[in-house]
């Protein structure tokens, strides 16, 4: 595309929009999906996992809503693959909230997870929710084992044909110089970025695996799954799980004995900070770029950081901590709430020592780049949802717009630190909305009669369609602004000398989860 292709979108003199169609095409051209800068999720998965990875028997929709289930299922599988690749068992979940991701990583993938959230309410809620989840985990595990066995049987039925094809490929294909076999369709981290410095994933053993080995592996995996189920139970308090015994006789005595054993195991685990890997510990702390994780986590070891919809500056600070701390070997961060980002050049304040959420990379810092709150608010909009018919809340946006005119003209207020919040959903009419909003803003509504409020409503009612059109243009532009914020974070990682590979990956279905892009990075081997 030539530089002047989109030059006629705006009038050169008035700067007004004159070609809406060209505006939409330009916005699409500069979106992440079109720029070709993202690494496909499947490429990452293939680079990180072996043949038997990615088979999970437990579905998160058993105990989460559809959106959260989708996010946790996809992200937890990827996090587990990265942890296995890096040879680590400890995960730090920044901005863990109610602990959905942390709990699942711990129980499903046997990882030791520390969930850190600034809200003590969230931490307490995560504790309680995790306790209840543990209580029902046996049922999930049992169903998961049945699903796992069914999947493996299906895979075993397909295996002879696959094995025959692989054997033929091996016989026809010469060995590499390093004597390792690489299946043609497998992607390694080197294939994604050749200079990343990671050792090649050797696949000779899996390529040579015979049908007999596969059956033995299946039996071994089923045995391991049973052991993991028992291991989960052993570190739980005695009253956190239902009584279980494989024996039908003397059930009462065995149950009491098992209770005592589990209670002792639980006490020992707590006393030793729990050497068991499948552990989830919710913690309360406010994370900044200067946070020393070792002050929060006493048994900090080689680990990876994750963040599922880390809000505002927290996403940027997660990447800064990752880059600065040698014990953090990988990061997988999905940000959100771009409107809450702090900007270095927004208010033209000279605070060089301050740590800002945007920009992060040196290139944009040198340019003195600023988005502004309106642009960042636009970046939060969900184009894909609008595209499938989930329209914008036009009436609530109209209420908010007219309210702003009222508080500017009647009260002379142009800026406030207070927020109206979700007042619209709690209001019975426009008058009710205005009065509730004024109280939230601590403005005296007694001098504003109902008739005056309705005069403003009637004055602007005919312009509601204009407002809807304006907001649709903001929705179309949203991906372009999100690109700028995400590429800033990626460029920051590219500037760091200790990072082997970094990339942007589309993790989620954007209709289910509009903030769907993850920033992922791995440290160089020399940093391990």
Automatic annotation (TrEMBL):
<dbReference type="Pfam" id="PF13679">
    <property type="entry name" value="Methyltransf_32"/>
</dbReference>
<dbReference type="InterPro" id="IPR025714">
    <property type="entry name" value="Methyltranfer_dom"/>
</dbReference>
<dbReference type="InterPro" id="IPR052220">
    <property type="entry name" value="METTL25"/>
</dbReference>
<feature type="domain" description="Methyltransferase">
    <location>
        <begin position="67"/>
        <end position="344"/>
    </location>
</feature>
<protein>
    <submittedName>
        <fullName>MET25 protein</fullName>
    </submittedName>
</protein>
<dbReference type="InterPro" id="IPR029063">
    <property type="entry name" value="SAM-dependent_MTases_sf"/>
</dbReference>
């Amino acid at each position: 595309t030539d530089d002047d292709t989109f030059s006629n979108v705006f009038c050169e003199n008035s700067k007004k929009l004159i070609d809406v169609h060209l505006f939409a095409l330009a916005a699409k051209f500069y979106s992440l999906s079109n720029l070709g800068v993202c690494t496909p999720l499947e490429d990452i998965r293939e680079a990180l996992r072996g043949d038997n990875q990615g088979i999970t028997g437990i579905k998160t929709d058993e105990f989460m809503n559809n959106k959260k289930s989708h996010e946790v299922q996809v992200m937890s599988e990827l996090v587990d693959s990265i942890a296995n690749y890096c040879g680590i068992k400890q995960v730090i979940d920044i901005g863990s909230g109610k602990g959905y991701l942390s709990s699942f990583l711990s129980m499903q993938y046997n990882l030791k997870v520390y969930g850190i959230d600034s809200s003590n309410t969230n931490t307490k809620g995560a504790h309680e929710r995790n306790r209840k989840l543990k209580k029902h985990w046996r049922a999930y595990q049992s169903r998961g084992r049945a699903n796992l066995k069914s999947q493996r049987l299906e895979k075993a039925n397909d295996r002879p044909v696959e094995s025959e094809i692989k054997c033929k490929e091996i016989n026809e294909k010469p060995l590499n110089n390093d004597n390792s076999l690489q299946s043609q369709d497998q992607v390694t981290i080197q294939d994604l970025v050749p200079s990343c410095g990671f050792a090649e994933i050797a696949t000779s053993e899996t390529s040579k695996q015979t049908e007999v080995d596969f059956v033995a592996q299946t039996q071994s995996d089923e045995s391991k799954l049973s052991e993991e189920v028992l291991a989960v139970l052993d570190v739980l308090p005695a009253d956190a799980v239902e009584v279980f015994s494989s024996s039908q006789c003397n059930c009462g005595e065995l149950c009491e004995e098992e209770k005592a054993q589990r209670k002792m195991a639980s006490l020992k685990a707590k006393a030793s900070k729990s050497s068991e890997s499948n552990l989830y510990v919710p913690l309360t702390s406010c994370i900044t770029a200067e946070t020393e994780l070792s002050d929060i986590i006493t048994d900090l070891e080689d680990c990876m950081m994750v963040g599922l919809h880390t809000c505002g500056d927290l996403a940027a600070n997660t990447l800064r901590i990752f880059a600065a701390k040698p014990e953090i070997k990988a990061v997988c961060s999905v940000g959100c709430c771009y409107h809450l980002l702090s900007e270095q050049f927004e208010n033209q304040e000279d605070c060089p020592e301050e740590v800002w959420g945007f920009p992060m990379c040196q290139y944009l810092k040198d340019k003195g780049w600023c988005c502004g709150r309106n642009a960042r608010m636009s970046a939060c909009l969900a184009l894909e949802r609008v595209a499938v018919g989930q329209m914008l809340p036009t009436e609530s946006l109209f209420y908010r717009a007219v309210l702003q005119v009222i508080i500017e003209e009647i009260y002379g207020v142009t800026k406030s630190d207070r927020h109206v919040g979700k007042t619209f959903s709690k209001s019975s009419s426009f008058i009710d909305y205005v009065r509730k909003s004024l109280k939230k803003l601590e403005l005296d509504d007694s001098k504003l009669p109902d008739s005056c409020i309705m005069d403003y409503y009637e004055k602007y009612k005919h312009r509601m369609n204009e407002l809807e059109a304006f907001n649709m243009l903001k929705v179309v532009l949203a991906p372009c602004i999100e690109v700028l914020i995400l590429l800033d974070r990626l460029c920051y990682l590219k500037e760091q000398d200790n990072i082997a590979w970094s990339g942007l990956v589309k993790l989620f279905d954007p209709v289910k989860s509009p903030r769907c892009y993850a920033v992922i990075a791995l440290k160089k081997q020399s940093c391990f």
